[in-house]
Fold this protein.
Amino acid sequence: MSQKISRRNFLKLATAGAATTAVLTGCGPASRYVTREPYTKMPEYTYNGLSTYYATTCRECAAGCGLIVRTMQGRAIKVEGNPANPINLGKTCARGQATLHGLYNPDRVEFPIKQGRSAALGTTAMKWEEAFQIVADAMNNANASEIAFLLGTASDHLFDLITDFTTAIGAPAPVRFGALSMFESRATLSQAAENLLGEAGLPFFDLANSDLVVSFGSNFLETWLSPVAYTRGFAKMRRGNTQKRGYLIQFESQMSQTAAKADEWIPVLPGTEGLIALALGRLVAEAKGGSTPRAFASVNVEEVSAKSGVSLEQLEHIAGLIAQAQAPLAVPGGQALGQSNGLSTAEAVLALNALADNYGKPGGVFISPLSPNEDAYHRPASAKEMADFIATLKNGSVKTLFIHGVNPLFEIPKPLGFVEALASVPTVISFATFPDETALASDYIFPDHQGLEAWGYQRSATGAMHSVLSGAQPVVSPMHDTRSTADVLIEAARLAGGKFAEALPFTDEVAFIRSKIANLIGRADGSFAAPEINTFASYFQQSGGWWSAAGASASSSAASALGKTIVIDEAAFAGDGEFFFIPFISPTLGEAGANKPWLQELPDPMTTVMWNSWVAMNPETAHHLGVENDDVVKIISEAGEVEVAVYEYPAIHPEVVAMPFGQGHTAYGRFATAKLPQDRFLGLVPHGGLIGDAFQRGANPADVLGAHFNKAGDLAFAGMKVKIEKTGRKQYLSRLESRIGVYGEGFPEEK
Amino acid sequence: MIRKFFEWVLSPMGRIAMVITVMSLFSLAAYGVYQTQQPPEQPIQFTHKLHVGLGIQCLYCHPGALRGPSPGLPTINKCWGCHQQIAKTQTSPLLKPMVDAMNAGVGFTWVPVAQVPDFVHFTHRPHIAAGLNCEKCHGDMTKVTIAENPQVMNMGWCLNCHKSRTEDNFQNNPTGDAIVSAQLEEKRTKLTDCGTCHY
Amino acid sequence: MTVDLNLVGAKGAIAEAAEGKWGMTIDQDICTGCQACVAACAMENNVAFVGEEDAGYGRTQHWIRIERFWDGEYPHVKATPFQPMLCQQCGHAPCEPVCPVFATPHSPAEDLNLQVYNRCVGTRYCANNCPFQVRSFNWRDYHIIPELGNMVNGTLVFPLHNQLNPDVTVRRRGVMEKCTFCIQRIHHAQDTAKSEGREVEDGEFTTACAQACPASAITFGRVDHPESLVSQMAHQERGVKHLEELNTLPRVTYLKEG
């Protein structure tokens, strides 16, 4: 060999060495790390590699959309809509799609826990036998009047079971509540409908067949009442008629995602929406000729224009459009009704529909048909009713409080005093599936299955002109040692004996459900028929529920609505700040989506912000305040304060700031909180500090909402005025649309 | 320092050391490659030879091959269906793992042999539908005890068959029919398209 | 469809003016920006979420995203119609010729722009070249970040992995990815049809985004079949192709509002 190694030889050696290393790393039996475990007993209808589909119901909100879930080898892979369910007709929203991130969330309550109201989730599992006994003891060791149930918004089988139970034993009826129903002002909507039409129920607005929709702050494309159904309705309105493109007008103080689809977005001062409806009513009546109905006769249009900030020309222009439309429809939204004058605002908007004579007609207003097996519309509790409920907790009338399907410590504004009231309740038992704030503040957590692991049914309160009972069945076996809450109550009642056992004489939850759907067997107007319960229950399970044929519930004539003078008081605003504060439900997170990572990663449609909160503020306003994008400001109301980063939002009234609800958790898992300091770009520690072992992610606008109610009892959540202070800190928001702030760029050199 | 090292490497001592190093690395590599080609340890010494020899069809235990992507592995219940009636089950030490598993209510954890990487989406159904026998790819099961691959299942091997079965030659198109030619070409396009298997 | 490479020369290129095979229409007049398509795509295709910090740096993996621009100033400000943007499966894809290892060929059989993960070495030239900016790169092993898992008896377990779709490859760090028009669903439908001895019917299957969209704004199907719904939608007067002047021959037709 020569003395030197030539370059060629060196390369050869190097290559051989590299190849050897590469081969070595993949060698040996250690690389056989894949194993396969077939079923021990495979279900008869399953083949390896082929999926099995189950029909069930989405439990992410109260809309009750039907789902078909694709499962593979016992794992739920993908959620699709059930094409047969009249509410969603095969479609799903983002929150429904992400329900799998709830089922397979790494932070679930995996077994019953003696939580003891401590800040961190307990780690010691109890036995379910102990849990049943504790519930049984709670039943036995208190007067029936001292047992209280707090449930979520949806009217479902658990609500029925507990209603029957409490009625039988003489306990107070269960209270249903949730942030969504609070921000939708449901009580106001149904109260106004009852006042005007004499019929209690939730109005349904048939967007699909309308050619002109005037929305007063209604977020029907986001989370309002039944977003999938209303989105479908909107799409049909827009483009369903080949002759005419549907027109949408939105009066709203900020441009929401729904307002972004409007052909005309008209910014208004909060609290003036009702006045605008009255003014439009008067102008439309005048445009059509003939007499002006009493409802609109006393409104002064110029005054309305001055108060609302909408020019006279614009009001006249819109009135002209309404007068010429074939099927105009006015929709009152949560924001307009969540004011001190919300009830009369709702009446004004409904009266506008009466003027258009669209009640009970295609493109108009209907009362949503009652769900099967519903004697009357039982709406969720209003905020005032919640406040009364909290008062009973506080004065010691409740010995045991059961909580399911709602997170009051997060969803109820703090000034309503739920946290303080809990201290007066000796035993709080949570059935939470996830370790949220309320679960941690409970004495015990007896976790319910996640929605996709559970039996049940859910009523659709609105969304289609069918009477719909959406059925749920487990699509996978429960992942953890959880028990269906209905089963827990049935077993505890059995253990408690006496009147409790008599109140729930069922072997289990499924037996209860069957007893509730049995009376549908004889009906001929449904999606299927069967001669007896076993066949009926099979079809119910397989098709995902039972629904009647489409039918308009004949709405009473609304002529009387026009005969009554509608007086709209000036909206009262709490606090003396200079800005109106408008919270809105995050369209991506909904009320309970913060623990699902893919929902956090979805950009907000209007700001494209991900994983955090923001306060939307007009750029001029920001300039006056001396703040810019990503500056953290303190928002102070008479009820509380929050700190949140600024988003300079071009489409918002300069006197209004808006903030999304859904973020700002201090518990609820690793995705809803921030394990590492949020302000990672600059390594700054956020304001909230460590809670447990995590930081608060974002901020909760409910912290600044005061206990003010409108005449229907709904929270006047849009009736706060706030002060805004600079903090001098920055919180870089992750935006899809730009990298502003991220690399220290995008800010003007001089302030 | 480095210069000294290179000088030592070029010295006779150094050269011998290099040769020894290279040879040991090479034999380690060879051993490693050999190891990857050995059939893995399975939870029970299932002999295909015996069972196939008894006349049991592949599709009896692996029915998924006919319908979908994965032929599947039989559940332990399938084994027990016959084995509960065979006296030897209770006495043979080789069958003890099955008895234990049945008593415990669990199944076996098999190590799959005929694997392709997870960026390859192979589906059995069209291959069975095309008339291929199981033994064409998996070998003659009457000759093996523990399952092992008769050849490496790599992309070249797949493509060879894909190409040869779609070639416009006498075997595939004996009459030289133009329609068959066109079909073969369409088939070939599909079978040599990257996206057919890699997605 | 067969391709005579002698005619067009460059690898993967399809003859000029060819309609394409699979295509989509997106009605911007009824898209509400709700992100249901984004969530559905992520669930179907094992798209990883990257967390707040990486999202801030622009490393999100959204295969489809909703774009919103502003027009004018308050009070005469309008949000431009929501614009779902996804891989256009261009006939003349600018991402194809620049890959040094041919990891993104054009499918002769399906006329789609393919992404072959095992071939990709992560030069990111394709993403650089894409005028629609629809390609995303796996900067980390986003699926197995330790913070996503739980320690169970000494092993790190990822419950979220139970949701992963077995029909779609789970990508490791270092590879590009993008919308595939749900090619796994295309293959599944074709295989089912083949096993039943028939052709795939229009509307028999669709992409995850189209299936989820509550407004039915997305239509998918065979744009080379004139009787398919997507063809009829695409030939409306208000149909446009974005960045048409670049002549990349996108297969997605956007229906303008108005």
User: Anything to note?
Assistant: Residues 2-36 of chain B form one domain. The mean pLDDT of chain B is 91. The two ends of chain B are 51 Å apart (CA to CA). The first helix of chain B runs from residue 2 to 10.
